[in-house]
Each structure stands twice: as C-alpha cells, then as structure tokens.
User: Fold these one by one.
Assistant:
Number 1:
Amino acid sequence: MKTILHKADSRGHANHGWLNSFHSFSFANYYDPNRMNFGALRVLNDDNVAAGRGFGKHPHSNMEIISIPLEGDLKHMDNMGNFTVIKEGDIQVMSAGTGVEHSEFNNNMDSVVKFLQIWIIPNKENVEPRHDQISLSDLKVKNKLYQILSPNPKDQGVWIHQNAWFHMGDFEKGQSESYSLKSEENGAYVFVLEGELNIEDTTLNARDGFGIWDTDSFELNATKNAKFLIMEVPMNF
C-alpha cells in the first residue's frame, strides 16, 4: 500500500478578487513538479466565484471535465447548445473530445458560488463532445457511500471516457465503511469537504486530500461528522 497526504494549506492558491481558487494539483500559475496529478486525476480546483462573475467563453479538448457545486448555482453555456444551471446537489460532466467552448458564471447576484472543478485525462482522444447533468438527490444515502460517476453509461450517476469511479459520503461521527477498488490498476484520491475522516491511521480535515494505491481496499472512519468525495482513477494511463 502506498499513500500520499496533501493538507489543505499546502494547495496552490490564486485570488483574483472575483475568483478565489485553491489547486490540489499544478494549474495555471501554480506549478509544483511533485503535484502534477494523481494518476488520471489532473485537476482538482476548489473554486469560489463572486456574485454575478465567472469564466468567459474558453476552449477545451481531450479532457473529461466534472463540475460539482457545493454552494450556490453555476450557469453553464457551451457551443453544443447547452444552457443550464448547475445547483448544489447536482453533478455535470463534459467530454471535451475534439473541442468545445463553454462559459461558467455565478447565476446569483447576491452570493458566492462554490464548486469543485475536476479534470480527468480520458482513455479515448478526439471523441465527439458531450454534456450531461443530473441531480444527486435520488442517489444520496446517509452514512453510506453512493456512486456518482463511472465508465458505464448504464450505471448509476454520470459517465466519462475513463476507467474511473466517483463516490460521495455523508457520514455521522463513528460511521465507518470499507472501500474496495474496482481495478488493481487504480488508486483512490479522497477529498474531505467537511468534518474529519480517518484513513489508515491518517486524520483528514476539511479540504485535505489523501491518495492511496497499491491496495485492493481501505477503511474510512468518520471521527467527526464528515462529507467527502472519493475519486478512483487509473494510476498508469
């Protein structure tokens, strides 16, 4: 078993006034050769966007882009004709493939929107761009891991072009569960949203990240009430 701990205060940080962003991995002006990625997980940005502000139209290609609002509403527009609002409790995926242009704005004029922006390196290049968005309300289960993303279009949650699975947890203090990796070639990156979690005798607090690989399973224990995201991805791609 191998592990790596990324404490919240070790992340890259950029404050542009309208955007306050924390980077778990190298992004934009934040560069750390030891923090380029965790397997196929290339970007994990913890973004706070001021009221009415946002990212103007910009291009992407050959990347799987996942947006998970944590607070507030995020307006999405793209050149595929999609015009949607992603709310807290939703998840959106965009396969950029051969190329797509999109914009993202805070849909509210009186409050900040907070969301996770996640990029996964795909296992197929130059696919036809696609967009999908669902509510997680029907999937969410208290004190139990629930799947929100997979490689299978017929499976629970959204899907992407990669051998990856995302699960979320909302655990009360004292709750524990074992997570079994779907592939021996994969590792898992756990990102704590709120509270306190213990994995393999390592204590994780809000916004800490913990990578674990070369194992087939690991135990999660909520030492306080905890909300967290598990991102299982290939380590070699």
Number 2:
Amino acid sequence: MRQPLVMGNWKLNGTKASVEALVKALIEPAAKADGVEVAVCPPVIFLGLVEKLAEGSRIQYGAQNADVHTQGAFTGENSPVMLKEFGCKYALVGHSERRTLHAETDDVVAAKFEAIQKAELIPVLCIGETLSQFEANETNAVVDAQLKAVIDRCGIAAIANAVIAYEPVWAIGTGKTATPEIAQAVHAHIRAYLAGFDADVAAKVQILYGGSVTGATAADLFGQPDIDGGLVGGASLKPDDFAQIIAGAKR
C-alpha cells in the first residue's frame, strides 16, 4: 500500500518569523498523522532554518528547484549536492511556474530530474496541462510527453525512486480544483501509462494531486484510489488549513 504524502510548496513566501511560526505549528499535526508523510518546500534561503526547526519532528523538507550542476560558475543556482547537505529529502522539478516563467523544457526537466537523483534526493516531478490543453482534451497527451522525456533519459526504473505530482495548470492558484472524478481519471491514466513500461513501478509510485487543494476538498480528493496525497500551494502557508489537509490524507 502506498503511503500518503502531503507536501507544502511555499513558493516565494515567508520571513524568518513566519517560517518559524509555521514549522512549529505543523509539528503536532505531523506527529498525529499516523501513516501520512508531511513535507514542506520553503524558499531555499530558509532551508537552514527549517533544518533546525524540524529536527526531531516528523516533518520532512525539500527544495523548490535544483540545478543540473553540482558546483562551478553558475551564479544564483541551487546545487542538488548542497541541498542534500542541508538535510533535504526532496526537490521539486518541472513545476509549471518553472516551465513557463523560466522556459524549462521537458528536456531540461529530465536533466534536472537526473541530477537530483544522482545527489540522492527524491525528485517530485510536476506534470500537468494548461486550460487550453484541457479544453482541447489534450491532457493525457501532455502528461504522457512530460513523463516520456524523463523515462527516455533516466529509464523507467528511475520513477521508482521519485514522486509524481499532477498539477493541472488551470487549477494552480486560481481557486479552481479538478473534481475528484477528473483528478482520479488523470491519475489512473498516469499509472496506466507507466504500467506500459513497468507494472510494478506504476503500482508503487506515489502520485500527488496539486491545484488549489483546501481542507474542504482534501478528503474527497485523497480518497480516490490513485491519488496518494497532495502538493499544496497557498493553503500550506496557513497552519490550520494545512493541518486539515494532512488529516484528510489519513487512511
């Protein structure tokens, strides 16, 4: 049985004071969430603070981005090896905001995925379609292509040591959420697509849903057979809301 995972993506938000308050507020909900893994992805500048605050708790953490290089003349980039040194377990890769705002192609995402795994971090591969693609019934083709780029570079076995996050771009930060039925249908398709390469990998990989998840929608979404938790944006910055989402993942 796949373990549920609820991960907060704080994006470019936070201060020293707010990060401290947020992590401290999440320690108890994470401790009470038997069978659910709780993780947060703060801005990289706060990783050292989160490392200190989360010590001894059940809270895991990761980075929002990682570079393909581990060191050298790459000003402003985040080495996956350095992220590992700060205790990160995860690194997001392929988030729609990176794909659109920073022009990261499927090939770039695949290269970053590979670098993250080589540093012994777990990549959280974000995939999903835009509103126009959704309305054109291109969802399955889009997510297939995004997955295929990684499989072509790293092999299907690499997916066994990764997390997939399906995030319909039209539902990120918009307040719109795919219905549990729509989300489940895409998650089932993703798992079936992966099964075409390796059924065992497909059965075991965690697939998260992301896109305006709230405490009110979490239980119905996470109750679907192929949805293994969530990658949560805005609500992860609100301790009470995030705690409710965590509780919604318990099985």
Number 3:
Amino acid sequence: MKTVYHKADTRGHANHGWLNSYHTFSFAGYQNQERMNFGVLRVLNDDTVSQGMGFGTHPHRDMEIISIPLEGDLEHKDSMGTTAVIKKGEIQVMSAGTGVQHSEYNKNKDEPVKFLQIWVFPREIGVEPRYDQQNIKSEEKINDFQQILSPDKNDDGVWIHQDAWFSLANFKNGNSKDYPLHKSGNGVYAFVLSGTAKIGDQILNSRDGLGIWDTQSFNVEALEDAEILLMEVPMELPDYLK
C-alpha cells in the first residue's frame, strides 16, 4: 500500500474577506507542482462563505463538480434553469460537460455557509450538462461506510461520469472497519471532517488528508468520534489529458 499524507496546515489558503478557502490541491493563486491532483481528483476546496455572499455567475466545462455542505444553506442557480438550495445532509453534483454557467451563494443573511467543493475529471469530455442533488442524511450509517456517490445512476447517492465512489464514514470512538476498493487501479483520498482516525500507520486529525493506492483494501479506525469523507477515484488520468 502506498500513501501520501497532507497535514491540514500544509494546504493552500486564500482569505478574500467574503470567502475563506483552503485548497488541498493547486487552485487559483495556490500552485504546488507536487499537489496538482490525486488521480482524477483535481480540486478539494474547504470553503467558508460569509453571510449573503457567494460566487457570481461563471462558466465550467468538462468537469464533474460536487458540493457537500457542512454548515448553513447554499443557493445554486445555473444556465440549465436550475434554482435550488442545498444544506448539511445533502450532496449536489453538476456535470459541466459541453458547458454550463452557474452561481453559488450563501442563502442566509445571518450565518456563514461552509461546504466542500470537489472537482473530478470525467472519463470523457463533451457530455450533456446535468444537475442533481440528494438528501443523504436519511441514509446515514454509524460505524459503517455510507455510499453517497458512484458511477451508477441506479446506485446509492448521486452519480458522475467517472468510475468513482464517495463514502462517508461516521465512526464512534474505538470502532474500525476495512474499506474494500471497488475497482482495480483506483485509489482513495481520505479527508477527515472531524475527530481523529487512523488509516494504516497514519494518524489523521481534523482536515488532514491521506491518499491511498496500490492496495485492495485498508482499515479505518476511529481514535475518537470521527467523520471521514472517502473519495475513491481512478489513479490514471483519462486519455484526453495525456
């Protein structure tokens, strides 16, 4: 098993006043050639947006964009005619494909919104743009892996145009379980949302990240109550990026 450890305080950081953002991988003004991506996982931003503020309308194409709110309400509008609000306990996905414009704003005037912004390279370009969101709170599992994203539209959670599986691990102190990878050639980027956990020989605290590959499974152990996002993705980039 191979791993790469990213301690929380080694992430890129940009504070724009209305936006406080931490970048696990190179993004905007933070450029680190050793941290461009983990396989097809291109962006993992940990964002806090001030009351009533947000990202104005801007374009994307040929990217799978996932948002996971951690606190507050996030208002989404896009050129496909979608208007929606997502909140903690939900997940949003947008396949940019041939091109889409969207905005994301803090819906509330009295509290910030905190969310993860995640970009994944699709397996192919030029797909039809699409939007979806789902409530994942109602399916929450304790001391187990709750799948929230996959390549299969008929499976649990939302789906994207990539052989990727995302799961939430909400483990109580002292509990552990093996995570089996879904597909050969995939790796997993584990990001600790809260608490302390151990994967292999590595102890991880809140907002630490660990990339894991060249293995069929690994063990996740909670050293205190912990919530962890596991992002399983292909390690090989698609042909259009080579």
Number 4:
Amino acid sequence: MSLTVLMNAGPWLSVPPPGYGGIENVVATLVPELRRLGVRVVLASVETSTLPVDEKISVFPDGQFHALQRPYNQVCGVSQAHLGGVVRALHARDDIDLVHDHVEAVGLATMAAMGPDAPPALHTLHWDLAKHPELYGNLDGGDRVRVNGVSASQLARAPQALRDHSVGHVHLSTPLAVDADRRPPVDQGDHVIILGRINPGKGQDLGARLARQVGFPLVLAGPVGPYHRPEDLAAAGDEARQNPDVRFFYDHVAPHVDGDLVRWVGTVAGQERDDLLASARAALFPLRWEEPGGTAVVESLALGTPVVSTARGCLPELIEHGRTGLLTTDEEELGDLVLAAGLLDPAECRREAAARFTPAMMAEQYVGLYERVRQLAARPLLPERPYRPGRTDGWWPGRRLSPAGTGKPAVRSR
C-alpha cells in the first residue's frame, strides 16, 4: 500500500507510554499493524517516544502529562505548541496523504481550520462528546475532515454536526488478544481489580465502598493525577490537592483504602499489570460516565478475566452479559455481581478477545476508513459555476484569487 499517514498522538505522554496512557497505548497498538500493511507512518509525539516509525515530529523533549490538569492559563499553550509543529510540518512537505489525529478538541479544530489545501484528516474521538458543545456542535470540516468513534454508543450520543462528519466507529484493541484463545489458563485469586486513572467517572470510590460492604479484596491500579506511585503522592504534600483528581482521591477514595482489603498500588505496567489482571476474580468498572472506548475492558477479556460493570457507554457492545461478564443498571448490585463472576468461564473471555479485539483487525478497519476519508475529500472543493463578467482574473464568489491574475484557480483540486 502506498500511503503516508501523519499519526498525531499529542504532547502528553511518550508512545508507548510508561504504564498508564490511554490514547498513547491505542497509537502504540495501531501503528505496527499499519506498517505491516505497508502504510508509512510519520509520528507526531514527544522526543522520548520509542515506537518504531518511519519518521517522528516532536516539539517537546518529553511528555507533558504532569501539566495536564493545571489551571488553564498555565497549560493552554501545550497542545497549541504541539499542533503548531504539526501544521508547520504539513506546510513544509507534500508527501502526507492523510492526518490521523488523536488530540482532544484542539486537534480537530486545527485540522478543520487548515483550509482546502491541507491533506485529508481523520480525527478519532476518544472522549465524552458532551464536553465541548460549541466545538462539536458547530464543526464544519467540509469534505476534507472526518471523524470516527471508538464505539457505536459514543457516536449515538454525539452532536449532529459530528455525526454528519462521521465515517463510523472502530473498537479498541489490545496485543494481548493475539492468540488469546490459546493462552494457558491462570489460577484466579480472590482479588478484584479496578484498572485505570482514578477519577469520579471511573467510580473507584463506589468500588472501594462496595468492597468494604461485601467483603471482597480490591486492588486500585492507576495514577492519581500526575502521581503514579503512592510514595510520590505522599511526598507531594498539600500542594497536590490543587489537582482535581487528587482532591477526589483524598476526599472520596482514600477513606476506604486500608492497605489490606482495599489497596491502591499506583500505576502498574507490563508483566506485573498482566499478572495482576489475569489472576483477578473480576475486573470491576463501576462507571459513572458513558465510557466511550474501554481499552482496559478488552485487556481484561484477553487475559481471561470476566468484567463486572454498570451497563453504560460501550460496555454493552463489548461484554455479553452472562458469558464474558455481568452488567447492571443498578450500581448497588455490583458487589453481588463480583461474587457471581467466579461462575463465568475465563476461556470464553479469551475466545471473545481473540475473535474481536486484535490489533490486526483494528488496523484493517482503519485502513478502510483512510480510503473512505480520501475518497470523500476528493469531491470537488467548489461547485462548477459559470464565469461572471466584470473581472478579468477569473474570480467569482467563493473562488480564491489566482496567482498573478492568471485566471487559474488557486484552490488545488484532488
């Protein structure tokens, strides 16, 4: 395949990330499979990214995740500086066939504002689409900029302008799903795990409270704000409470954490993460928001760990109730479902992951979307209109002035 894609991962974490990293893990999973299919990839990320690619564009030497939840006036320039580097690269070269953008809000706005001479762009929506109503509700990317969701339920809740620009959805994947159906079984323990960044939407406070009420051991694995280890958060002192996730942890989660029945272990990665997840009785997702993608959900299935969750967002798309997990609309029922999860067959979870959530499947679907976006962008940028007399430079309303009054359109056709 002769296709060069600029993959815009953003400035927050390296690719692959050192442990936690949602979007960066998605990019790290997708890119090797795209290159296997013959796609040439130019990665826009931070300099410390180690993912093998054909080229790399960087503005920042390392990830800026530590600044992500600072006050707006301290952090507002980070994404813009990164996007400025991307735009400069796109202006300086003509070999980029498509931009695949993953930067929330400003990535989509920048791609839409670049104008008709920019390459086609596909913006993947990884987030809660209610967050930026003025942006998403008024999007006009013309024929050149399109979006895709990471679940059907995410797009179903999107503003009409986003749905008008959508080319469909692609579920997230995990390398753990490759040959998951042939992975040997793991002895499962009694502990339950909640995997992910600790914040109100993920519901760790609810999970911790239910663990104390019902009596199951619970492991919370994920960062609190920019703090990846308990000792780092403890050393930060009261100043850390300026971060909203830290305040949430101290006010609502920490009162339940006793180091015995309920433990916070910080960010876990690699084999340690896989072992902790594979040996769990269940992966618990006590969601208080409409989860759009669910990387940790498909990772749990690939490791043979049944999922227990509130039936929100993408979860009903990913989990078959009674076979690969247990879902409920009553969050108080989650504790009882955790106890019942031991009756589910881990082999069914692994088979489901191998059948639906491999990186190769995700890459093939994205290549199909790339071609669709390029076809849509190839529509005439301006309708054919008759020449209107009174000008000698070939101009009519909606047409840009041609160079040096030649009468030839300055808008590049595709």
